[in-house]
Amino acid sequence: MRAFPTTAAAVVISLFMLCQGVSLAGMGRNTEGNLFRIELRIDPPQPVVGSNAALLDVYDAKSNEKIDDATIEVIPWMTMHSHGSSKKPTVHKQGSGQYRVEDIYYTMEGDWDLLITIQKKGTKDTATFPISHVIKK
Ligand SMILES: [Cu+2]
After folding, report:
1. What's the predicted TM-score (pTM) here?
2. Residue 50, pLDDT above cutoff 90
3. What's the gap in Å between 112 CA and the centre of ligand 1?
């Protein structure tokens, strides 16, 4: 019986750490003009100097329908130093409103932003996702 409080505490701490990990890895927001909603998951969850990837789920912000046929551009930008990356990320349509972004290349440690532009049938909207604390592997 003495072990029970310790076990319970361990479970609570594990759940807390799990939630922390999920909140670090997943972010959602509307684009500036409220045309789209983007759910972003970064891979690895702890962003690193060098190559990273991300999964984007794109929805119509009003109807909540998945947006399959969008043209998406992703630009890594280090606002603090006003510079981008040496590589351009590639975006791959996966269907069901999901897009996988490869070659998100952070050239140095620190705080970056992902500038995301979504175009669909003549409409265009943008969103900025902060990618904080990029570290060296
Ligand atoms: Cu920099």
Report:
1. 0.82
2. yes
3. 8
Q: How far is the CA of 16 from the centre of ligand 1 (A)?
A: 32
pLDDT tens digits along 77-121:
999 999 999 999 999 999 999 999 999 999 999 999 999 999 999
Query: In angstroms, rounded to a whole number, what is the distance separating the alpha carbons of residues 56 and 98?
Result: 6
CATH of the domain at 84: 2.60.40.10
**Is residue 115 situated within a structural domain?**
yes
- Evaluate whether residue 50 is within a structural domain: yes
Query: Total domain count for the chain?
Result: 1
Q: Confirm whether 56 is domain-assigned.
A: yes
Half-sphere exposure of 133 (CA within 13 A, CB side): 5
Q: Angle at CA 54, nearest 5°, toward 136 and 15? A: 80
Ligand 1 centroid from CA 72, angstroms: 24
18 in any annotated domain: no
